[in-house]
């Protein structure tokens, strides 16, 4: 808005006389009475336009290509979740650096967030590299469609896929239950004490017959797992490969790397157990309880939240009694405590 006014100007004319002539003087004055808001920044305008176009694009996909829209929306939602997790991990690491806190000194939820994010990033890195070139994201969509379980992390799975894939992974874990139990029986003669031999034989036989063992029964054989033949350093290559599959680790590595990875991951779970004991199982949400059971060997999809809490308390009861030298027993307990839990509830 601008203001204009008419003024007069005095002009000299021939003859020395004076004559007033009215002339129009246009004086521009900036408007200070406007009620309009301050103009938006260029970036905010661009972001707003981009958001509007993206909304129209998603609406178009939803109407014309509903199956592709599910894939697209799952990918975008997963990307946002991954970015949120990244910010949370950065906050935790900043806290660790500023306060001098080690990993095993973190609260339970922070420790679990770091553990899961590291595993997610390792699995997602190849796909992220593939998607870097221009228009390569369309290739990612193809890979999502063809190999979602093998290439994508949980953020990019639909709820139906999550349920299906977790069952597939657990079935792969169940396939080696018998191998783990057989390896205990094969090495039984190397246990120096006769009493321990008998206790381990009874324990393994019960599990093979579908009986769910008591935590106290497992604790009684802990001494056999602090040295040969069942300690971490004494496991043979076949035992380590079977246990690696229980932990969802690749078994196709040399023995040294298998042993190192098994040790690292079972100690990580042991540290989580210590933090969870302080935090309290009852403080976990339903999703957190089921996830905690799953990573310790139990397929929590088949159990109620209360059954999962009961099982997790049993696991913690065992874990808190074990020393670092007995970590191999905790690793084997992913089979011993999980194999027949469902049958024990049905009786």
Describe the fold and architecture.
The relative contact order is 0.07. The chain has 347 residues and is mainly α. It has 2 domains: 63-157, no CATH class; 174-346, no CATH class. The protein is elongated and about 80 Å long. Strand 2 and strand 3 form a beta hairpin. Strands 1-4 form a two-stranded antiparallel ribbon. A two-stranded antiparallel sheet has the order 2-3. It starts with a strand and ends with a helix. It is built from 15 helices and 4 strands. The longest helix has 34 residues, at 66-99.
Topology:
Layout: E1 2-3, E2 7-12, E3 18-23, E4 29-30, H1 42-64, H2 66-99, H3 108-130, H4 137-146, H5 148-151, H6 159-174, H7 177-186, H8 194-208, H9 215-219, H10 237-246, H11 255-279, H12 286-295, H13 305-319, H14 327-336, H15 341-346
Antiparallel strand pairs: 1-4, 2-3
**Helix and strand element order:** EEEEHHHHHHHHHHHHHHH
Q: Beta-sheet strand percentage?
A: under 5%
Q: How many β strands by DSSP?
A: 4
What is the overall number of helices?
Answer: 15
Basic shape: elongated
Low-confidence stretches: 1-39
Task: Tell me the Rg in angstroms.
Answer: 34 Å
Give helix % range.
Answer: 55-70%
Which characteristics define this entry?
5% strand; elongated; 2 domains; two-stranded antiparallel sheet; mainly alpha; disordered N terminus; 347 residues; 62% helix; 4 strands
Provide a concise account of the structure shown:
This protein is mainly alpha-helical. The chain has 15 helices and 4 strands. The chain has helices at residues 42-64, 66-99, 108-130, 137-146, 148-151, 159-174, 177-186, 194-208, 215-219, 237-246, 255-279, 286-295, 305-319, 327-336, 341-346; strands spanning 2-3, 7-12, 18-23, 29-30.
């Amino acid at each position: 808005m601008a203001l204009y006014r008419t003024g007069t100007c005095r002009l000299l004319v021939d003859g020395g006389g004076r004559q007033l002539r009215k002339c129009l003087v246009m004086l521009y004055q900036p408007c200070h009475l406007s009620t309009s808001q301050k103009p938006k920044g260029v970036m905010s305008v661009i972001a707003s336009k981009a958001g509007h176009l993206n909304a129209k694009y998603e609406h178009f996909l939803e109407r014309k290509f509903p199956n592709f829209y599910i894939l697209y929306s799952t990918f975008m939602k997963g990307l946002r979740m991954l970015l949120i997790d990244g910010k949370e991990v950065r906050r935790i690491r900043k806290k660790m650096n500023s306060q001098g806190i080690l990993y095993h000194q973190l609260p339970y939820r922070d420790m679990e967030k770091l553990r899961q994010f590291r595993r997610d990033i390792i699995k997602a890195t190849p796909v992220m590299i593939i998607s870097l070139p221009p228009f390569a994201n369309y290739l990612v969509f193809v890979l999502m469609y063809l190999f979602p379980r093998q290439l994508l992390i949980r953020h990019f799975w639909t709820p139906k896929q999550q349920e299906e894939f977790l069952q597939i992974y657990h079935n792969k874990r169940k396939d080696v239950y018998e191998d783990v139990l057989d390896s205990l029986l094969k090495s039984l003669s190397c246990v120096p004490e006769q009493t321990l031999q008998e206790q381990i034989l009874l324990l393994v036989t019960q599990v093979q017959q579908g009986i769910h063992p008591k935590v106290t029964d497992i604790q009684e054989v802990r001494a056999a797992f602090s040295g040969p033949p069942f300690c971490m350093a004494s496991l043979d290559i076949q035992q380590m490969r079977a246990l690696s599959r229980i932990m969802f680790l690749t078994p196709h590595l040399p023995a040294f790397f298998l042993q190192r990875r098994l040790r690292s991951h079972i100690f990580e779970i042991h540290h989580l157990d210590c933090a969870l004991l302080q935090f309290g199982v009852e403080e976990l949400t339903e999703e957190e309880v089921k996830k905690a059971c799953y990573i310790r060997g139990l397929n929590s999809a088949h159990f109620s939240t209360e059954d999962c809490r009961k099982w997790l308390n049993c696991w913690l009861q065992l874990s808190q009694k074990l020393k670092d030298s007995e970590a191999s027993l905790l690793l084997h307990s992913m089979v011993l405590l999980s194999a027949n839990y469902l049958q024990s509830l049905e009786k």
